[in-house]
Design goal:
Blueprint: H1 3-10, H2 13-20, H3 23-30, H4 39-48, H5 53-63, H6 70-84, H7 119-123, E1 129-130, E2 133-134
Antiparallel strand pairs: 1-2
Helix pairs in contact: 4-5
């Protein structure tokens, strides 16, 4: 058994996630040959390299922001700078949590139907509808690339 899979079976799941979700592991996967230390420097180094433009393209698709102009780059720089501040938080001796409600049981109430057959009344609130269904906006909006 290799060391990475033995970690899965020996350590609790939360520490396993903490290891593989740490910035050091993620950046070593994305930027294996970089010798820089902050996420901002690593992102800039990855974007500057010829093979690293996919990072910027991927971030543009996720954030729906064009990072090719000055405003977009400044927004990205501020977001990364804010994320880098998280490294300053002292988390020594703090167990990672899988959920914010990890120590509580959530009890559900009985589901008693008191009203019904109010489809028309509910659909009055819809901006758009087709037959008896709400029309939701599309979930993914692609940025149009201009060369």
């Amino acid at each position: 058994m290799d060391p990475d899979t033995s970690l899965l079976f020996q350590a609790p799941f939360s520490s396993y996630c903490k290891h593989f979700c740490s910035l050091e592991v993620i950046t070593s996967i994305c930027f294996p040959r970089c010798e820089v230390h902050t996420a901002q420097e690593q992102l800039c180094e990855g974007v500057r390299s010829p093979s690293g433009s996919w990072v910027l393209d991927h971030l543009e698709q996720l954030a729906l922001v064009d990072f090719r102009d000055a405003e977009g780059v400044e927004r990205l720089r501020k977001a990364i700078q804010f994320a880098d501040q998280l490294h300053e938080v002292n988390t020594d001796g703090v167990e990672p949590m899988d959920s914010v409600l990890e120590d509580r049981c959530l009890y559900l109430r009985e589901d008693d139907v008191t009203e019904g057959n109010c489809t028309n009344e509910l659909l009055k609130n819809a901006r758009e509808k087709v037959e008896e269904y709400f029309v939701a906006p599309p979930g993914i909006v692609l940025l149009i690339k201009t060369s």
